[in-house]
Amino acid sequence: MANVQAFAKRSLYYLKQLQWRCLSSTVLSHMSKSPLLFDNVELASNRYDIQRGNFAKATQQDINYFKDILSSQSAVITDAEELIGSNTDWLQVVRGSGPVLLKPENTEQVSKIMQYCNNRNLAVVPQGGKTGLVGGGVPVFDEIILSTSRMNNVIDVDKISGTLVCQPGCILQELEDRLNSDNFILPYDLGARGSCHIGGNLSTNAGGIRLVRYGSLHGSVLGVEAVLADGTVLDCMSTCRKDNTGYDLKQLFIGSEGTLGIITKVAIALAQKPRAQCVALIGCNNFENVKQVFSSARKDLCEYLSACEFMDSKIMSLVENHLKLTNPVQTSSFYVLIEASGSSEQYCKTALLDFLETLIESKVIKEGIVADNSVQIKDVWALRERVLEACQHDGYVFKYDVSLPLRVFYNIVDDLRSRLGSQAKSIGGYGHIGDGNLHINITCEEYNKQLEKAIEPYIFEWIGKYKGSVSAEHGMGFIKRKYMNYSKSEAAYNTMKGIKQLLDPKGILNPYKTIPDQY
Amino acid sequence: MANVQAFAKRSLYYLKQLQWRCLSSTVLSHMSKSPLLFDNVELASNRYDIQRGNFAKATQQDINYFKDILSSQSAVITDAEELIGSNTDWLQVVRGSGPVLLKPENTEQVSKIMQYCNNRNLAVVPQGGKTGLVGGGVPVFDEIILSTSRMNNVIDVDKISGTLVCQPGCILQELEDRLNSDNFILPYDLGARGSCHIGGNLSTNAGGIRLVRYGSLHGSVLGVEAVLADGTVLDCMSTCRKDNTGYDLKQLFIGSEGTLGIITKVAIALAQKPRAQCVALIGCNNFENVKQVFSSARKDLCEYLSACEFMDSKIMSLVENHLKLTNPVQTSSFYVLIEASGSSEQYCKTALLDFLETLIESKVIKEGIVADNSVQIKDVWALRERVLEACQHDGYVFKYDVSLPLRVFYNIVDDLRSRLGSQAKSIGGYGHIGDGNLHINITCEEYNKQLEKAIEPYIFEWIGKYKGSVSAEHGMGFIKRKYMNYSKSEAAYNTMKGIKQLLDPKGILNPYKTIPDQY
Ligand SMILES: Cc1cc2nc3c(=O)[nH]c(=O)nc-3n(C[C@H](O)[C@H](O)[C@H](O)COP(=O)(O)OP(=O)(O)OC[C@H]3O[C@@H](n4cnc5c(N)ncnc54)[C@H](O)[C@@H]3O)c2cc1C
Ligand SMILES: Cc1cc2nc3c(=O)[nH]c(=O)nc-3n(C[C@H](O)[C@H](O)[C@H](O)COP(=O)(O)OP(=O)(O)OC[C@H]3O[C@@H](n4cnc5c(N)ncnc54)[C@H](O)[C@@H]3O)c2cc1C
User: Fold this and answer.
1) How far is the CA of A514 from the centre of ligand 1 (A)?
2) Helices B60-70 and B107-120 sit at what angle, rounded to 10 degrees?
3) Does domain B4-15+28-32+274-387 have CATH number 3.30.70.2190?
């Protein structure tokens, strides 16, 4: 925690001595496993108003074929017990009944599977780490599950140009650990790092906590190899940072949630691992101040700013109550987490302290704490990163992940509170304010259709009115696709349909996902 | 220039007092106009082996219709004299005979033009600032020229979220000037800033000198509105930094050189204008040292690094001889320009000086100079940015813009020198080494087919062998498209064709560009 002696010299009177009561170094990687059991989740085909597509059903003969081409027995799973997990999504709101889980090891096997499925008209759902939050990576009916969990080789780390080439099933945390030892980091990071796969990250165009610094995956992914619905291997691999030789096809696979092809290889530009990192947690009285903190951070921290997250008091209390984590600053209406990082510990910390001092002097904030060693930094981050887990403990979660202009950003939460009243157990807002990305979590004891109707489409209409995004970073998957029209034009919808038809004429790749049946 | 007093204290003995003999503050914006005359450029239909597509020819009736919908007389140019410029590209290697130049003012007019041309089967070439270097923005035969020069309104600058919304015809330099006053910069910059349009920049996925810091346009463009070949207005506008609601269609228009649609509106995320900026120019004895300078810069300057450019001695001598600019460092085999920028002048400069000191101590470099006021910074940059202009003065330029892995990066230049011998007047290498992007300029007295044959396809085979890119940032346009196969797979080629067919079934949008007729 902040070296109070040193801060005193700079008269940073607001930095109080911290009581890290029960904040211990949390093993963050554990949190990305879904915390509850799977067996009582209602089947999607019952819960939702949805019709099965006109696909074939997998037969024993099909399964035998898969066993043949995948050679290893453990690569073809049909055991009902084992399949439950792969059929149910992380949030436990979508459950399918996929009869078989395939675990190919390489591109060639994926290509053979797809060629076969396309001929047989069998539907396929690609599955990565299964941490997606919109039900995109699990079957809705009886799709075949194609998991990338065994495609987890690092192919190359080029230390001069700073590029990584790997298979899609590499787990984010494992990649990060390996790269860190060469002083690189991936240009993105997210709370699900312990389970999510890089292939899943690309397929969802994952945002996360470093976007404010390093930008989106559309900018940092250098190459993609994808297997199309008919088994064609589309090689768009490259490790060049610049390559303008025709249409940038790899972009199509970033964020298309496995509906256009299966990503089988990835090349990505790495960022230099900053030598120094400090994190401040700040309490704010109102949302105006939160906005001021952010815009000052952009201006004053400039090149040092590497994350800017916020949470409201409701969310903080869920984290405190359900996970027994300690909030180290005075109880406030809002909390902002600011991370600064860079090549020099001294400059980076001084910049952060100067920034905080200015905020105090201009009365934008009252107090804050600064964490500057890795244990403490982890502890502060845990407060923000374990929010979803805390909400899951609160009951059934209606989860929204939206972009809104900052001028109306938090109004939607206030508005939902007055609209829903006591129907909801709790309504909290948090997220990546640095990217204009708000997460709204509404909890209730158990899945409640009436509450859902009170929220939807109201919430999407609200967002549409302000030209926000009804899915900022999680994607459309199964549960959000029908709201696409609130963020996309009809011409865009038609063009998407055209592209889907071009790359997957039979529609076998992740059906019921991403693009709604009608606008 | 470096405050020598202050540096002496830090014993930076290598920083010599500079003689800025004739280096004056160059008006960089002038250099992006093509320096020579247009009237003796051979018609593309004669120079190149190319067949006219089966399009209609514009009639007087068509011209009357255009006059009708564009209302203003000066928006429909048919005067032969005036048309010469619009028919000839910057490098003066492609010249068409487009019979009419249209200058619409808004999306609706563009849509009407395209709807009409699609019905009439008239081919159209979109034209921005006409600084493209691959003949993409001029007619090859008699295509109608659609210029964005009158679509130059800034629609919105959001100072809180840091976003710009504008029409495509805004000139880069003018945007930059306007944004600077609000302490923002565009996340890219290039030497052609005085003439190029933001729409042209997106259409070519321009790279430039800030890519090493802010990444590519695929990451920073937030929204695009494009008019398709049949006049459909495809609205993919958004100012959200995150929006995962379906396929990211705007990406298709970034780098597709006007072959899929005409960009009529742009939204882009801005970067904070750094308060401080310093530039070092360093001499290196060999290319190994250049690489070391770059990889140390990534590591040591980390968040401060905002540009890393290089040029060889041949290029420097062209700049000195033709433009009478002064090279302020000792004559060396290679020169590296490093720019550091950030929020604090002191930190930024100290970081740069520390970095240089380390390089001196480890004997990677012998000397360098540091410029830290805006006039001097401009002067140093002029050495790098006016290279193309200097080469144009040397004669006809065969220009290659390639990506290569750093381990073989400069070998290609040495190799070409021994292959071409005295056939070429000069062979020089320079470019954005921070992005693995090499420009190779080969000059001769005038266009010379034999020399061309000695270079091509040899140079592309070389690049293909090392999995580089045959067009790093300039695109394929007309003159590079036939070499696509050296950087792209056949499956990728077929998919591009499919997308072209989907969005422009008649092929009227910028024919003869980007995608070759066969693989
Ligand atoms: C605790 C927690 C925190 C999170 N934080 C963030 C966050 O900050 N930012 C964010 O953006 N998301 C976040 N998420 C959501 C989730 O982690 C991301 O969407 C992640 O990218 C999904 O990766 P995955 O490997 O788990 O993919 P899965 O859930 O398995 O699949 C996601 C989608 O991608 C498809 N897919 C997977 N692999 C492939 C492939 N190889 N080829 C083609 N399609 C494929 C699936 O079909 C599915 O549609 C969080 C989730 C949790 C549980
Ligand atoms: C001195 C100099 C330095 C340069 N430095 C760089 C550099 O560092 N990096 C770099 O990447 N390039 C560089 N270039 C190349 C050039 O400047 C870029 O390609 C630039 O982006 C072209 O913009 P423009 O407006 O001039 O487009 P144009 O040349 O007019 O057109 C380029 C292509 O885009 C299409 N197009 C233009 N506007 C639209 C639109 N609104 N909708 C659809 N299609 C459109 C055209 O049909 C054409 O195919 C340089 C050029 C010069 C002369």
Assistant:
1) 13
2) 160
3) yes
